[in-house]
Amino acid sequence: MRLILFGTSGCHLCEQAEVIVKACVPDGVEHVDIAEQEQWQERYAVRIPVLYDSESGRELGWPFDQADVEDFVGRVARM
């Protein structure tokens, strides 16, 4: 399991998502600013924040809460 939180600076929803994810994933996640690459902008521009597992390709899109993140992490960990 390799989790990435896609977002961008100045996004209040991304800041909320980061707090939720930090509470659920003690090892942390990689943060990726979608402004860094055009492919991420095209894919996530109107969907951020998005929690993504790069090994399974599964995504958890906003809105999500702590229970949603815990469920998502549990599902991808079992894969």
Strand content: 15-25%
- Give the total of beta strands: 4
| Mean of residue pLDDT values | 94
CATH architecture: 3-Layer(aba) Sandwich
Gross geometry:
globular
Helix residue percentage: 40-55%
What does this structure look like?
The chain is α+β, with helices and mostly antiparallel strands and 79 residues long. The protein has one domain (3-77): 3-Layer(aba) Sandwich (Glutaredoxin). The protein has three helices and four strands. The chain has a four-stranded mixed β-sheet, with helices on one face. A hairpin with a 5-residue loop joins strand 3 (50-53) and strand 4 (59-61). The longest helix is centred in the first third of the chain and has 13 residues, at 12-24. The radius of gyration is 12 Å and the shape is globular. It starts with a strand and ends with a helix. 27% of the residues are buried. The model has no long low-confidence stretch (mean pLDDT 94).
Describe how the helices and strands are arranged.
Blueprint (H helix, E strand, L loop, with lengths): L2 E5 L4 H13 L5 E4 L4 H7 L5 E4 L5 E3 L4 H12 L2
Parallel strand pairs: 1-2
Antiparallel strand pairs: 1-3, 3-4
Helix pairs in contact: 1-3
Gist of the model:
The protein has 79 residues and is an alpha+beta fold. It has three helices and four strands. The longest helix has 13 residues.
Keywords for this entry:
79 residues, 4-stranded mixed sheet, 3 helices, globular, alpha+beta, Glutaredoxin
